[in-house]
Amino acid sequence: MTSTYAVLSEGLEKRFGEVRAVRGLDLAVAEGTVCGILGPNGAGKTTAVRLLTTLLRPDAGSARVAGHDLVREPAAVRRHIGVTGQYASVDGDLTGRQNLRLFARLHRVRDAAARADELLERFGLTEAAGRTAATYSGGMRRRLDLAASLIRRPAVLFLDEPTTGLDPASRNRIRDAVRELKRDGTTVLLTTQYLEEADQLADDIALVARGRVAHTGSPAQLKALIGSYAEAVVGHEDALTGAAAVLDRLTGAEPAFDRERNAVGAVTTDPTLTLPRLVRELDAAGVPLIDASLRPPTLDDVFLRLTDESPDDSPDHKELAA
């Protein structure tokens, strides 16, 4: 492993009985970057995080995290990482300040009280520091949980769907915290179901499908793989067939229908297709056009096109490998 990579795994595998939850995971995450881990439910994202954080032992393959071998040096790996799971792990009977001081003492952090107060202020929890965590909102508990994972100033931070279920304001606070961590030089591995979140935060994205990394690259690079999206909104449902025929001819891709909006669209990789040309062709075909657009793809488009969302052979694969 070179010093430029905070996480490097090769051929990582994990089985649960007959279920291959992770099957040859290859991942390289540069130091000081945010890597988004995306994939459908059951793809193996959480299992991969559990492997890389030493919570599970791999059945095959190798990995180094923060310069340490995952299997031979698990204690060293744990000393250099922070982990925030899908659910807040703070003690509801303790105050926010007591939670952080407890974590600091467990990790033998010098001046635990000062470090706890520093993180409470950083995450906007100073005023609520004397209240028990059970009285916190969901967003406040997630912020407290994130603060606890930073007690030791980890080199690598694993965030497993940290904003799931939060209101927009709370999600923005967590996202701002991730940006600040990156500025401080922390490497962040982020699994998320919010694709716009990965688009905003991630330097690179690993699309995971069936326990493997299917595609990697920056958000822009992944979007470039699938081209643009051409769409026509027509005056009535009967006109959808004619619009679809035009899009099929121009793009060579099977059109997708949105009958609630009387819209039809298709992905195109043809750089010569422009919006004026699209409108002209629809008009020439006699399509009663209401609106037309030619837009770059979103990560939602990338996700749907480049990941295999079909379930695994085993009925319990999703439960085990989510």
Describe, in plain words, how this protein is organized in 3D.
This protein is α/β, with parallel strands linked by helices and 322 residues long. Among the domains are: 5-80 and 154-223, 3-Layer(aba) Sandwich (Rossmann fold); 228-295, Alpha-Beta Plaits (2-Layer Sandwich). It is 35% helix and 27% strand. Strands 6-7-8-3-9-10 form a six-stranded mixed β-sheet, sandwiched between helices. Strands 2-1-4-5 form a four-stranded antiparallel β-sheet. A four-stranded antiparallel β-sheet has the order 12-13-11-14. A hairpin with a 2-residue loop joins β9 (204-209) and β10. α3 packs across α4 and α8 packs across α11 (299-306). The protein is elongated. The model is unreliable at 308-322 (pLDDT under 50).
- Cα separation of the termini: 28 Å
Uncertain runs = 308-322
Structural class: alpha/beta
Return the CATH architecture of the domain at 5-80 and 154-223: 3-Layer(aba) Sandwich
- At the fourth level of CATH, the homologous superfamily of the domain at 5-80 and 154-223 is P-loop containing nucleotide triphosphate hydrolases
| Relative helix content | 25-40%
**Mean pLDDT across every amino acid position:** 90
Shape: elongated
Query: Number of DSSP helices?
Result: 12
SSE string, helix = H, strand = E? Answer: EEEHEEHEHHHEHEHEEHEHEEHEHH
Number of strands: 14
- CATH C-level of the domain at 5-80 and 154-223: Alpha Beta
Oligomer: single chain
Strand order in the largest sheet: 6-7-8-3-9-10
**CATH topology call of the domain at 5-80 and 154-223:** Rossmann fold
Work out the strand percent.
25-35%
Radius of gyration: 23 Å
Q: What does the main sheet amount to?
A: 6 strands, mixed
